[in-house]
Design brief:
2 copies of one chain form a homodimer. Helices cover 62% and strands 0% of the residues of chain A. Chain A is mainly α. The first copy, chain A, folds into 2 domains: 76 residues, Arc Repressor Mutant, subunit A, CATH 1.10.10.60; 161 residues, Tetracycline Repressor, domain 2, CATH 1.10.357.10. Chain A is flat and about 75 Å long. The N terminus of chain A is likely disordered. At the A-B interface, helix 1, helix 6, helix 7, helix 8 and helix 10 of A face helix 1, helix 6, helix 7, helix 8 and helix 10 of B. Chain A binds a DNA duplex through loops.
Chain lengths: 279, 279
DNA sequence: GCCATCTCTATACACCATAAGGATATCAGG
DNA sequence: CCTGATATCCTTATGGTGTATAGAGATGGC
């Protein structure tokens, strides 16, 4: 018989996420005073992940940062998976709510996207937290509330908007992932992007003669001018990813605008093209 | 002194990827006949990853499937990282080239996207191969050639098109990732999506009273009707992800269309709005 | 002062990638 | 056929992971 795996654990981890009383807060009884707290552990874990990446996040590493063993953490946190969930929701609190200032929804959406882009690059490990079976913490809902608040101004209905929000978030995550990974690779190997790319191109020419004939479209694509380095301090691939992100976002929002104006010009109040495209 | 990490390894792995002669093919000399080959190992590794996921892909597991120990593989393949690169490029060969049949670029792009969506769900581990420092194998270039060939018909120039392709691919990867992870989670835990979601919603209501007041936009968003189950066989979250993918793709292509027609209607031949949006 | 209760440590287990060394099979030259 | 070189493959070892288990030591209620 299957006991609906993780039911009890799920309750405890939701209680931890939402800081429900009863999450062993003001417990007074026999036994030594706890020297740690869930917050301390989460903070230490975030520090480890920020500094060394998700791959380096181990219970031992977190414990060490707090002067404890790995096992000491298990009195506060049920498992590593739960800890990651807590880290995820905790760090999402950095994102500001609001964006009511901006004039139109497009400006607000762009500003929001830029903010979350910077956030993802600040905490790249966030992108490795799975979105299937989402964490469902308060700060994730706060973020969702913000972006829905912005995009609601398009006049889209709930169903289509839900899909638009999903598409936007996953697009951002996918793009930021590459930028973050490229930064991480450079840091881990010590080889900057340009150097890596240069060496790889040379190898490619060596190993794949007749490249231009075999892949004419790719050859044509690469014939285009390199994008002007707007900012020399950010490394090559990350800059490229950022420009791709901005271009993609613009196209996406163009699509939304087209759908919205099509709906506005159409017969019905808010039905029509939008529903067709986004349903 | 830093010796430009991985220079020698890079040459060998590129030779393996592109099957350059000299990648120890027809070597005749003393020593026992090799019982395995790179291809056999790559095939076995793909089988493992398809069946059990990337997390279960260990050298031991691959060796076991071939009746060898883990260490036996290291005579054929330099390391696990190289093996994953080979797996990645090998499996990409499944994707068909072409799509010259379709009437317009939009139809072709949609068909291509559907194909690669199915491919990603067939081989979800592919989504865990980093796109920073890409693999640069022949089949990845073939895929790129296909999609560039399709989108070139929009009339966009090389620079903007490069960014559009990047945005499209990362959007697809981000979306497919969630769908794949949700499938994986269901398989690993044995709890289907609906059941998980139902239990989690109940817990959420318990642990976060006043949800609707605290997150009014989210509450409104979820008030929308659930999307009609077009296909009962695919599980809930995966279906949702698929619809989000299709909707997002449509919006993205709408944006491209808008940019293209803006450029066409404009003064210059192919400059104008497109360059603005996608530069 | 006893003792239940709690924190925290030590140890152990089953995994992981892979470095090092040795056993064995195979072939070239004598 | 024999010898020496060489390549495949296995065994073993190292240092890592998450976490189960058992126990040491501290604490407060009685």
């Amino acid at each position: 018989m299957v006991v609906f795996a993780g039911q009890g654990d799920a309750r405890r981890s939701m209680a931890l996420l939402w800081r429900t009383p009863g999450a062993q807060d003001t417990r007074t009884g026999p036994g030594p005073k706890p020297a740690l707290s869930v917050d301390m552990i989460v903070d230490a874990a975030i520090a480890v992940a920020d500094a060394e990446g998700m791959a380096a996040l181990s219970m031992r590493a977190v414990g060490e940062r707090l002067g404890r063993t790995a096992m000491a953490l298990y009195t506060y946190v049920p498992s590593k998976a739960e800890l990651v969930d807590l880290m995820y929701d905790h760090v999402l609190a950095e994102l500001p709510a609001g964006h009511e200032r901006e004039a139109g929804w497009r400006e607000a959406a762009t500003a929001w996207a830029e903010e979350i882009w910077a956030f993802y690059l600040r905490h790249p490990w966030v992108l490795q937290v799975s979105q299937a079976r989402p964490v469902l913490g308060p700060n994730e809902y706060a973020m969702l509330d913000t972006v829905v608040g912005i995009l609601r101004r398009t006049g889209l209905e709930a169903g289509p908007l839900r899909r638009l929000v999903g598409a936007l978030i996953h697009f951002m995550r996918g793009m930021a992932r590459t930028a973050a990974e490229s930064r991480q690779a450079a840091a881990a190997t010590g080889v900057p992007d340009e150097e890596w790319w240069f060496a790889r191109s040379a190898l490619l020419a060596e190993v794949a003669p007749g490249f231009a004939e075999r892949f004419p479209m790719v050859a044509w694509l690469e014939s285009g001018p390199a994008s002007p380095p707007e900012d020399q301090s950010t490394p090559y691939l990350e800059r490229e990813a950022r420009q791709t992100f901005q271009a993609g976002l613009a196209v996406l929002l163009d699509g939304v605008e087209a759908a919205v104006s099509r709906a506005g010009a159409g017969a019905g109040a808010s039905a029509g093209g939008v529903a067709e495209r986004l349903q």
